[in-house]
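chain below, 284 aa
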Amino acid sequence: MGQLVLAAKVTHVPSLMLSEQPGSPLRAAREPAVRSLRELGRRAKERGVTCFVVFDTHWLSNFGYHINANARHRGSFTSHEAPQMIQDLRYDLPGDTGLAKAIADRAGDAGLNVIAHQVASLGLEYGTIVPMHYMNPDGFAKVVSVASPLFTSFEESRILGEATRRAIDASDERVAVIASGSLSHRLWPNKKLGPEAWTSIASEFNRQVDLRVLELWQSRRYREFLDMLPDYATKCNGEGGMADTIMLFAALGWYDYCGAAEQLCDYFPSSGSGQVNVEFHVEA
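prediction:
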């Protein structure tokens, strides 16, 4: 039987990559996030993780749910959104066709249309590439990337998260589930973008709600958080409708989840959005 051995909500902001450039003014500001992503990778390796399932809010789909089921993910990525931050970033990671198809099948059993694709030219988006750059740099574990559809419902994302957990439990894998996306996601308008925007929040209301969410997580008040999640996703400009967070908590067991939330870096703003890295501990 398979096992979920690590679960986390993580940032994928492109300024992480920018901070690695020589002389970058962002190096100190992004170092805690970089360090905590690497720590999650260390923990994953230590726990014998064989596959990362990444709920990617930067792989946005207008038409339904999609999973990258390629046996190998290989390419050179330049962000169409921020080529000045991510350009020619090479990645070469093993995939997990079997688990990807199993997730799609279990979702289908629940009445959700999900397609697992084996298309060599289907690359990864940076919501998967950036976390894996730090967590899985040597490709020690396989990777399954799951898209976030724009025109869907809260309940459908929950169904896919639950299907993911059923597929994991029926597999032979030791899996890390990663929700890759921001907390609040109101970005600065173009006229305000620039170095100052990289480290500032665009909405004080959003910041206050983000901080409250982190308090609820750390107090294990997950039922209250889940009950506010539909409004949180809407009113705080949730990235990809916060589908990654919905799917993560569904995979954890929704109201039944009671594990500890370990915040691994301070909450930080990026281009107006709110970011953090948090591990949600699961029973061994």
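The chain has one domain: 3-280. The mean pLDDT is 95.
thats it, cya
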